[in-house]
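User: Sequence recovery, please. Input:
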């Protein structure tokens, strides 16, 4: 693009890629921790603004989360919508059992929130409602929203099973992050699905990513930046991913775009002449499927919730390193340049 046009895009591109990369990374960890159980985005109220909530829902879905409570995001992006009931609905009724009865009359295949007053008693009231309604009872799950989630899940499961409600699932939420979810899964807690809000939409443990948008080539020549700790590499580039015999990633090589090296080239051109190319028109489902497939091709150490002992290796190709060094030498020869 002409430099002024490319410069105008900088802020928007960084804004969109920064937030969604951070949130998608969190979403991937949440999905991994759940070990195949659905994880739902409940983060809209805790996101850093309304636009951030929309983009967070999108990023979390790409990363492997199952659905969103954000109705606008569901409509705009085609993400499956979901929701339960609110504590306020229960509190607006004089009797919790009557609140359940009223809600089920309007939303028969629903999730009932059982922790407004006493969680175990709330589950018992669901069981009594099932006996009252008989075949008309089609409630899908009960939702636990308070700790201790593990203990309450076992107690709720026992109450439901004793009432012949083995098909009614248990949905857990309330201050969850990937470490707490992994802990519950490891303990064998009978939880069928999770809802995550604050720790999904705000990425509390790693809220920033120092992404940059720098000029790498102009007028057909590579350009670099030499500032201490902020040095860049020149020219158009390609990244080649090396894989082991099992197809798992074992390292990346950053190279010049024209190089042909061992490994799988990762970068695709998405725009030319101001028009989107085929690679830039993939659907949300395409992105979700690709993200899942690529995660499976990462080594186990990178998919673990704890940081790996050995960093993932990323190298610079010999040709790109030589081009960068030649430009450094050229800049150092300019009048007034530091020696």
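Assistant: Recovered sequence (339 residues):
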């Amino acid at each position: 693009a002409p430099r002024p046009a490319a410069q105008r895009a900088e802020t928007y591109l960084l804004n969109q890629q920064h937030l969604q990369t951070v949130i998608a990374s969190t979403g991937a960890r949440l999905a991994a921790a759940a070990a195949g159980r659905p994880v739902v985005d409940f983060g809209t109220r805790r996101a850093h603004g309304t636009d951030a909530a929309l983009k967070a829902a999108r990023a979390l879905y790409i990363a492997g989360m199952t659905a969103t409570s954000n109705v606008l995001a569901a409509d705009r992006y085609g993400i499956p919508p979901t929701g339960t009931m609110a504590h306020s609905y229960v509190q607006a009724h004089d009797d919790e059992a009557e609140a359940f009865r009223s809600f089920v009359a309007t939303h028969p295949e629903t999730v009932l929130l059982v922790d407004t007053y006493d969680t175990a008693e709330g589950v018992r009231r669901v069981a009594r409602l099932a006996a009252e309604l008989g075949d008309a009872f089609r409630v899908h799950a009960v939702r636990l929203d308070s700790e201790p989630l593990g203990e309450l899940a076992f107690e709720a499961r026992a109450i439901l099973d004793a009432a012949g409600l083995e098909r009614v699932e248990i949905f857990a939420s309330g201050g969850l992050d990937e470490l707490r979810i992994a802990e519950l899964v490891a303990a064998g807690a009978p939880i069928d699905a999770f809802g995550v809000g604050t720790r999904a939409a705000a990425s509390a443990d790693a809220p920033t990513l120092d992404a940059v948008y720098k000029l790498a080539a102009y007028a057909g020549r590579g350009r670099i930046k030499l500032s201490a700790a902020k040095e860049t590499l020149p020219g158009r580039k390609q990244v080649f991913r090396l894989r082991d015999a099992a197809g798992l990633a074992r390292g990346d090589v950053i190279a010049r775009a024209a190089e042909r090296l061992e490994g799988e080239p990762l970068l695709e051109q998405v725009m030319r002449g101001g028009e989107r190319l085929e690679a830039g028109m993939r659907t949300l489902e395409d992105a979700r499927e690709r993200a899942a497939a690529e995660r499976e091709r990462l080594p186990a150490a990178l998919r673990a919730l704890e940081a790996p002992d050995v960093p993932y290796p990323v190298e610079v190709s010999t040709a790109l390193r030589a081009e960068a060094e030649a430009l450094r030498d050229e800049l150092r020869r300019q009048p007034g340049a530091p020696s």
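The two ends are 34 Å apart (CA to CA).
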